[in-house]
């Protein structure tokens, strides 16, 4: 469970979820062990006003969603995809 | 067979892991964390494939092939996922490594997916440059955990661990600051499995030109290995897939090969003139030797000569050696180093059951419900079998260890009985008494297969655990617990070593073990049996080929095989009883034996009671030493030195501990003028006027003569040995071999007789002057006389022989760890560095014997096994004092 204020930007929520997810990764499979920290860093940077490279982010999320060993990695990818679906404006903002 | 569709093509396949099936079908599926020796991991996510009906790609290493599967191994989606994963792995991978080794499989994979190493150094990587063989460069680690898993699943050592988790995960030893501190036994399995080069063989510094499969030359497990060569030198060894070792090796087999190119190799014949050795031609050396032998036969008769075969030599060469003794010289004075190790086992098994060899094979280890390990330390002395036993025990098999020392397996045992050395017979008898008293018998087996039960039951009452426990130095309750575990575990597998045989009652000790198997029906079935762990590569074969005064090729007696041999050899066999090795030494001391020919055997270093050996050997007129090196026997007593080719340099066969005959193959040419033993024997036979019968073109032709003389080996043709791992008896070329002996009867008959063996204490006892009991034995990193292992970096791992002593004794005697101490027995004294060890019981000490200085056999006695005269290396009363005292 993650508590956040109703005005917390989605980039910050994404950064927190992936930071938490990276910390909780067991480290066994490549996309989760090595991909999740990169995604966390990307959203962290976006939160600070930086721009995420969309192709790289999509590759990492694809790998995490399609190829990670357990539900941990897949769930993280689904979370990102849900933000993309339900908050397309804020999602896009991370990439511009 | 399964029917699958792989990339649009219909295929049939055996059931198995999907990745293995795909690779078998020729699909190029990349993988990094997969190793067929290990359970599935599914970590690297490179072996992803698409399977119809699955919502997302599946890791093919971690799922089974199923009938009807439709699989795609190469699609744009899969390629993109694999590339993402390789990019993630490559980010921390050093670019320099890829530049230096473009052909490395991982680097080719990076290149194939257009991925470049990023070289971003991770923090907290494990560093250790201290191991002599295993190199570590964790900047190349990709966290596949194959090292962690193979150390657990193959070696059972649990050295490596995946520390932390997620991105912070790092591979490092679970304990200690270095690999060796972490309990590494240097088997190299982690190096062998590592796909990235993070772990590597330090001593392999050149690219291998080619690999040759052969059989290991150290212990008698008979591991199959591939030997890499370059420029005529052995430069690398790696394990081969084989039922014997299943892709595993130990430190000696894998790493201790550099002796082969030691500058100390003697590569030309030599004769000792006056005080020094003189290089001579083969012609001169052979003429000199033949003339001396001829003169001794003329003056003293053929029985004044003794011939010693060797565990180091092939079956073919040992066969020729005994044929030479019997046919060319005309004497049965032929023996080999089995005399000092497992001849008691062979004698006991042959006498009671009919075959002088292990009853079961190593493949039975995984079938056993319980193990009874007696006087053997397999994790050090037969490490690959030791690891298999360890895995079986970790998987739930019960374990009884009987050993005065707390060996590694004793530490894992359900019951560890640590008897006073010399008390095997009463201890095994007490187990038999327990089996009968508590009705833990296999009545059906006894009814059908065992004789003499009633008399034995009457006899054994006197050995009830409560009566003998005190003498044995163990508790009666533990003896009973051990007997119960052995009976309840059926099939229970008994494996024993020299702690049983090298005693006054060595042969009888083995007989009392056989009683236990007969009483519990642990013979003639898989997962059971009585199994001597033979100590040297071909010691079973050397004796089995007839290097034994009373045995002809095939392990047969003169009565069984005399006529057959005489007819093939074209002449009557010598009728006089031959002398065994110890009797040869006695006869030399008495002036009756004048010459000895020893190949691949340093008898002076190896025999007990060096003082007596020395007096005997110095009486000889002619000592022919045939070896790789000027060994201690040659240095002190040699008359002629004949340089032999090593096992890397010739062809032939070895016979391992579980009755398999396996090929050895020439990897590199012999250096200088060194020649295979079989060539030397044939040359000498020709010079003694007996070229006929010694004119074989090579080992295969010799082996075919062996097969003609040995009915149980007739089916073991070289053609079959190329691709089969066969246990004898194998009487014809269609026969599948016999991994388990005695399934329906014994060679001695339908029934075997229990042996009522009374305990006879050794005269070698402690007293006020010699209050401690010394045991001698081997260690993981060295091998026997050290002729080979002392000429390798194993000396870094085990630099010296030591005297191991219990902390309580060391403290009582005021002796400090690692300081030199004087060990004195009734027969001699040596100075050894002290090693305080909790493996040793108070009142006992343990020494290894791998070095010529200090020569530990200065201490051992002349007491021998009552039946076959193996020396009692395992019991010597000593005192230990500080060197300054």
Quick overview:
Chain B: It comes from Pseudogulbenkiania ferrooxidans 2002. By secondary structure, chain A is mostly helical. Helices cover 72% and strands 0% of the residues of chain A.
What does this structure look like?
The complex is a heterodimer of chains A (96) and B (885). Chain A has helices spanning 10-24, 30-47, 54-67, 71-86, 88-93. With 96 residues, chain A is mostly helical. Chain A has a single domain (10-93), classed as NADH-ubiquinone oxidoreductase 51kDa subunit, iron-sulphur binding domain (de novo design (two linked rop proteins)), CATH 1.20.1440.230. Chain A is globular and about 35 Å long. In chain B, strand 18, helix 13 and strand 19 (415-417) form a beta-alpha-beta unit. In chain B, the strands form nine sheets. Chain B has a seven-stranded mixed sheet, sandwiched between helices. Chain B has a six-stranded mixed beta barrel with strand order 29-33-30-32-31-34. In chain B, helix 14 (424-437) runs parallel beside helix 20. Chain B folds into five domains: 2-74, Ubiquitin-like (UB roll); 119-261, ADC-like domains (N-terminal domain of TfIIb, Single Sheet); 270-341 and 538-546 and 578-687 and 712-721, Rossmann fold (3-Layer(aba) Sandwich); 343-532, 3-Layer(aba) Sandwich (Dimethylsulfoxide Reductase, domain 2); 772-882, Barwin-like endoglucanases, CATH 2.40.40.20. With 885 residues, chain B is α/β, with parallel strands linked by helices. The interface between A and B is medium-sized, with 26 and 27 residues. Chain A: InterPro entries: Nuop51_4Fe4S-bd (IPR019575), Nuop51_4Fe4S-bd_sf (IPR037207). Chain A: This is Dehydrogenase subunit, putative. Chain A: It comes from Pseudogulbenkiania ferrooxidans 2002. Chain A: One of its GO terms (molecular function) is 4 iron, 4 sulfur cluster binding. Chain A: Pfam families: NADH_4Fe-4S (PF10589).
């Amino acid at each position: 469970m993650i508590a956040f204020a109703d005005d917390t930007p989605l980039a910050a929520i994404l950064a927190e979820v992936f930071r938490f997810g990276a910390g909780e990764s067991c480290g066994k499979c490549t996309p989760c062990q090595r991909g999740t920290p990169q995604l966390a860093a990307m959203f962290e940077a976006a939160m600070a006003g930086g721009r995420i490279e969309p192709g790289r982010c999509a590759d990492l999320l694809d790998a995490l969603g399609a190829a990670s060993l357990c539900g941990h990695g897949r769930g993280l990818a689904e979370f990102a995809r849900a933000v993309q679906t339900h908050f397309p404006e804020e999602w896009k903002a991370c990439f511009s | 067979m399964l029917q699958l569709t792989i990339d649009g093509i219909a295929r049939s396949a055996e059931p198995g892991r999907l990745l293995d099936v795909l690779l078998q079908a020729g699909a190029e599926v990349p993988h990094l964390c997969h190793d067929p020796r290990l359970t599935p991991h599914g970590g690297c996510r490179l072996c992803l494939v698409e399977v119809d009906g699955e919502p997302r790609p599946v890791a093919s290493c971690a799922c089974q092939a199923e009938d009807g599967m439709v699989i795609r191994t190469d699609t744009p989606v899969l390629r993109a996922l694999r590339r993402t994963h390789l990019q993630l792995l490559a980010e921390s991978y050093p670019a320099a490594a890829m530049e230096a080794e473009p052909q490395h499989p991982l680097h080719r994979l990076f290149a194939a997916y257009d991925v470049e190493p990023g070289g971003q150094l991770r923090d907290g990587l494990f560093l250790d440059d201290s191991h002599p063989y295993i190199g570590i460069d964790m900047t190349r680690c990709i966290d596949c955990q194959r090292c962690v898993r193979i150390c657990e699943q193959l070696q059972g050592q649990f050295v490596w661990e995946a520390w932390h988790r997620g991105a912070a995960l790092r591979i490092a030893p679970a304990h200690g600051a270095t690999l060796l501190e972490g309990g590494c036994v240097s088997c190299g399995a982690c190096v062998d499995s590592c796909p990235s080069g993070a772990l590597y063989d330090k001593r392999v510094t050149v690219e291998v030109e080619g690999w040759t499969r052969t059989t290991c030359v150290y212990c008698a497990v008979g591991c199959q290995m591939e030997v890499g060569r370059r420029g005529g030198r052995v430069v690398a060894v790696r394990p081969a897939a084989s039922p014997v070792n299943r892709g595993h090796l130990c430190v000696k087999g894998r790493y201790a090969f550099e002796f082969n190119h030691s500058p100390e190799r003697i590569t030309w014949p030599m004769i000792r003139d006056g005080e020094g050795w003189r290089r001579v031609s083969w012609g001169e050396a052979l003429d000199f030797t033949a003339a001396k032998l001829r003169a001794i036969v003329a003056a003293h008769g053929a029985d004044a000569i003794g011939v010693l075969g060797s565990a180091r030599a092939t079956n073919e060469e040992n066969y020729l050696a005994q044929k030479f003794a019997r046919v060319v010289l005309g004497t049965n004075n032929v023996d080999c180093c089995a005399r000092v190790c497992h001849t008691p086992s062979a004698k006991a098994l042959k006498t009671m059951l009919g075959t002088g060899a292990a009853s079961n094979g190593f493949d039975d280890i995984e079938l056993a419900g319980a193990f009874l390990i007696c006087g053997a330390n397999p994790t050090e002395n037969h490490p690959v079998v030791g690891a298999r036993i360890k895995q079986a025990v970790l998987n739930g098999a019960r374990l009884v260890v009987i050993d005065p020392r707390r060996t590694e397996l004793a530490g894992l045992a359900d019951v560890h009985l640590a008897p006073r050395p010399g008390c095997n017979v009463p201890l095994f008898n007490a187990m038999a008494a327990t089996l009968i008293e508590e009705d833990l018998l296999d009545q059906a087996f006894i009814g059908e297969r065992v004789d003499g039960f009633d008399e034995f039951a009457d006899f054994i009452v006197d050995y009830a655990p409560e009566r003998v426990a005190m003498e044995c130095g163990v508790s009666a309750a533990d003896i009973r617990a051990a007997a119960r575990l052995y009976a309840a575990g059926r099939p229970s597998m008994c494996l024993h070593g020299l702690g049983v045989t090298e005693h006054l009652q060595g042969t009888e000790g083995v007989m009392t073990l056989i009683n236990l198997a007969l009483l519990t029906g642990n013979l003639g079935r898989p997962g059971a049996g009585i199994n001597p762990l033979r100590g040297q590569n071909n010691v079973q074969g050397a004796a089995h080929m007839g290097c034994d005064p009373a045995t002809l090729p095939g392990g047969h007696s003169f009565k069984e095989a005399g006529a057959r041999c005489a007819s093939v050899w074209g002449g009557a066999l010598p009728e006089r009883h031959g002398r065994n090795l110890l009797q040869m030494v006695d006869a030399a001391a008495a002036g009756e034996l004048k010459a000895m020919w020893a190949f691949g055997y340093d008898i002076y270093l190896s025999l007990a009671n060096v003082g007596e050996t020395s007096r005997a050997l110095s009486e000889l007129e002619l000592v022919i030493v045939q070896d790789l090196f000027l060994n201690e026997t040659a240095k002190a007593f040699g008359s002629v030195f004949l340089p032999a080719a090593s096992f890397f340099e010739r062809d032939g066969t070895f016979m391992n501990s579980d009755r398999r005959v396996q090929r050895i193959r020439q990897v590199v040419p012999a250096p200088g003028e060194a020649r295979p033993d079989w060539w030397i024997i044939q040359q000498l036979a020709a010079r003694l006027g007996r070229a006929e019968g010694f004119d074989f073109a090579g080992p295969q032709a010799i082996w075919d003569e062996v097969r003609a003389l040995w009915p149980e080996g007739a089916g073991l043709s070289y053609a079959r040995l190329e691709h089969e791992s066969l246990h004898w008896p194998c009487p014809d070329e269609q026969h599948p071999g016999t991994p388990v002996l005695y399934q329906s009867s014994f060679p001695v008959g339908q029934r075997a007789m229990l042996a009522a063996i009374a305990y006879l204490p050794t005269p070698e006892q402690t007293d006020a002057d010699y209050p401690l009991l010394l045991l001698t034995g081997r260690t993981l990193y060295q091998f026997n006389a050290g002729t080979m292992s002392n000429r390798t970096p194993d000396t870094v791992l085990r630099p010296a022989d030591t005297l191991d002593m219990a902390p309580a004794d060391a403290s009582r005697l005021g002796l400090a760890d690692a300081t030199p101490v004087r060990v004195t027995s009734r027969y001699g004294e040596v100075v050894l560095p002290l090693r305080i060890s909790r493996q040793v019981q108070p009142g006992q000490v343990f020494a290894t014997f791998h070095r010529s200085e200090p020569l530990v056999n200065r201490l051992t006695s002349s007491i021998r096994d009552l039946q076959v005269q193996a020396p009692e290396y395992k019991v010597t009363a000593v005192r230990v004092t500080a060197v300054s005292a």
